[in-house]
UniProtKB/TrEMBL annotation:
Residues 86-327, 398-615 form the ABC transporter domain. It comes from the Eukaryota. The gene is ABCF3_2. Residues 1-68 are annotated as: Disordered. This is Probable ATP-dependent transporter ycf16. SUPFAM superfamilies: P-loop containing nucleoside triphosphate hydrolases. Residues 13-23 have a biased composition (Low complexity). Gene3D superfamilies: P-loop containing nucleotide triphosphate hydrolases. Residues 25-39 have a biased composition (Polar residues). The lineage of its organism: Eukaryota, Rhodophyta, Bangiophyceae, Cyanidiales, Cyanidiaceae. Residues 1-12 have a biased composition (Basic residues).
Length: 641
């Protein structure tokens, strides 16, 4: 089929013909290569002498995995026919002297979505890092993207940063400009290759794709044009996630990528990943997200990787059934072993006939003991308990009157005319898009900042304990131990009392006296729980408390909050945790423009109703349809190649 007149290939041929005509009009049969010979000398040379492409390989730069895998061109042909499945046996993973995996096997089938679960400290993050850095033997033709850390902020626009993250496209566009300045035949042929490869990448639609992904993650048209340096760490993590999705890797590694997403963006991401036709390995504490996306679940438990078909709920059910069956079989085996031992003890030294039977029973016992089932029990869950201060009867323990707030004296109002009350038995979840002011709302309730308009009245005996999203910053010197940290806050408490308090939150023994910098994110959260418990509060405020907790600890926290006799207000994007704890939902809605102030709305339905409303908005905005088109294009490209 002849090329279309608007294709890059047609434009390359047209440009070459014009160059040849210009050369003939100057009286030469071929363009003069000497005028810019230094330009073309680089093309076709490089570190790989067997390279078939007319272009040199892209320069290696320090990156997440140190590899650059070309998706297009003659050198990518072998990659297209190679298996994209991953099977790595005999994995031994160490961090310092701590062994995390021993003779483990990792199997990932191309196109499947896997949830990687396990208790805090088991090594989930370290496994993803080992894959991304290719410390494990991942086939070299498989492209990997790892969403781990935020991008560095600079003057580059958000949209520009996403486009530039596709190194192969940037590399080809660079050579397009260089080759257009060269009038040799070889350069013309190389330019043809450049245009063919750009067409194969869908370069002309790249900006549309990037913009769609950014919209799904919460960046409107205006935000996409702003420099990346203007955004906070959470938003820069979204930019990193957008880069990974835009690059279309064969293996996408997500480590708690949902921590910095609001409910709207989380819904869009789940929809996008479900349609994504390539492999995803994700670590997440969000049960809803794992249930929505994961087709298989991998449990990292006691240095092994254990595989379960289905999503997280399916894994929980299957594992519980397996454990019940194993316990029943083990109980039967133990009873049988006890009977054999009794027989041997009674008749082992008696009559010859009975002694022979005892010898036979001994062999049966030895065989039975070699076949004994070891029940793979889960580690015991952490029990959390928050003692309460004295109960404060109505009127409301907090009353908000005509409240308004702005960050700067002349800046726009974040919200205005807020009026509500909180009792000491309230269970309120605060939701809304990132940047709307949810964390600021909690700080106003806690008294950490003061309103710009109106006032907040609090019961004179009210004690408020707060878990901030960045609570680690308030811990001060992380070289100190959790015990020293507690004693610095409560000098009247004896060391034994502080140890007992920390022990109630799973920080007993050496964990209480080691430097806090060595504690995991979840363990640092438990230190803050102990601090809050020591305050004996009447009202507790939580800002994204589930971010660094494993599933079992989240469930234990939900049980503790339901038993807590005081009030609870929490900002969370974890749908399951919200449904377990809250009986009221308040939505912080930003103004439609920068000049318009936002508001706080009491939602009359439950979280499922809110989610359905958000899904309708995303559907009407065309973002779900665009995500499906992206996935279909990827699948078609794989089939055609």
């Amino acid at each position: 089929m002849p090329p279309k007149n608007n294709s890059r290939k047609f434009r390359a041929k047209q440009a070459q013909q014009q160059q040849n005509k210009a050369a003939l009009s100057n009286g030469t049969s071929k363009p003069d290569q000497s005028s810019n010979g230094s330009l073309w000398q680089e093309v076709g040379s490089g570190r790989d002498a067997t390279r078939q492409s007319r272009l040199p390989p892209p320069p290696l730069i320090e990156g997440e995995d140190g590899y650059f895998v070309e998706r297009t061109g003659p050198d990518a042909a072998t990659r297209r026919s190679a298996s994209m499945d991953i099977c790595i046996e005999g994995i031994n993973l160490m961090v310092g002297r701590l062994e995390l995996l021993s003779s483990a096997v990792l199997k990932l089938t191309f196109g499947r979505k896997y949830g990687l679960v396990g208790r805090n400290g088991e090594g989930k993050t370290q496994l993803l890092c080992a894959l991304a850095q290719r410390r494990l033997p991942v086939p070299s033709h498989i492209r990997i993207a790892h969403v781990e850390q935020e991008v560095e902020g600079d003057e580059t626009s958000v949209l520009g940063a996403i486009l530039q993250s596709d190194r192969e496209r940037e590399y080809l566009l660079h050579w397009e400009q260089r080759l257009l300045q060269d009038h040799s035949d070889d350069a013309g042929e190389a330019l043809m290759e450049v245009y063919e490869r750009l067409d194969e990448l869908g370069s002309d639609a790249a900006e549309t794709r990037a913009s769609m992904i950014l919209r799904g993650l919460g960046f409107d048209t205006e935000a996409q044009q702003r420099p990346t340096k203007e955004f906070s760490g959470g938003w820069r993590m979204r930019i990193r996630l957008a880069m990974a999705l835009f690059q279309q890797p064969d293996l996408l590694l997500l480590d708690e990528a949902n921590n910095h997403l609001d409910s709207v963006s989380l819904l869009w991401l789940a929809h996008f990943l479900k349609a994504w036709p390539r492999t995803v390995l994700m670590v997440s504490h969000d049960r809803w997200l794992l249930n929505e996306v994961a087709q298989d679940t991998i449990l990292l438990h006691r240095k092994r990787l254990i595989y379960y078909g289905g999503n997280y709920d399916s894994y929980v059910k299957t594992r519980a059934e397996q454990q019940r069956h194993a316990i029943a079989v083990a109980s039967t085996q133990q009873r049988r072993a006890a009977d054999l031992k009794n027989f041997i003890a009674r008749f082992g030294h008696g009559h010859k006939k009975m002694a022979r039977q005892a010898q036979s029973r001994m062999k049966m016992l030895q065989r039975l003991e070699s076949e004994m089932i070891q029940v793979d029990q889960d580690d015991p869950s952490l029990r959390i308990e928050f003692p309460a201060a004295e109960y404060l009867p109505p009127p409301p323990c907090i009353s908000v009157n005509n409240l308004g707030f702005r960050y700067a004296p002349q800046g726009p109002m974040l919200y205005r005319n807020l009026n509500f009350g909180l009792d000491c038995d309230s269970r309120v979840a605060i939701i809304g898009p990132n940047g709307a002011g949810k964390s600021t709302f909690l700080k106003l309730l806690a008294g950490d900042i003061v309103p710009s308009e109106g006032w907040i009245s609090r019961h004179p005996k009210l004690r408020i304990a707060m878990f901030a999203q960045h609570h680690v910053d308030s811990m001060g010197d992380l070289e100190r131990s959790a015990l020293d940290h507690m004693r610095s806050l409560w000098p009247t408490l004896e060391a034994a009392e502080c140890r007992a308090l920390l022990g109630r939150f799973g920080l007993g023994g050496s964990l209480a006296i080691m430097p806090m910098k060595l504690l995991s994110g979840g363990q640092k959260s438990r230190v803050q729980f102990a601090v809050m418990a020591a305050m004996r509060p009447s009202l507790m405020l939580f800002d994204e408390v589930t971010n660094h907790l494993d599933m079992a600890t989240i469930d234990s926290l939900a049980v503790a909050l339901n038993a807590f006799p005081g009030g609870v207000v929490l900002v969370t994007h974890d749908a399951r945790f919200l449904s377990l704890v809250a009986n009221e939902i308040w939505i912080v809605r930003p103004g439609r423009t920068r000049q318009e102030s936002g508001t706080v709305e009491v939602w009359t339905g439950d979280y499922d109703d809110y989610k359905a409303a958000v899904e309708r908005e995303l559907e009407e905005a065309g973002l779900f349809a665009a995500a499906k088109q992206e996935a279909a294009a990827l699948a078609l490209h794989r089939l055609s190649s």
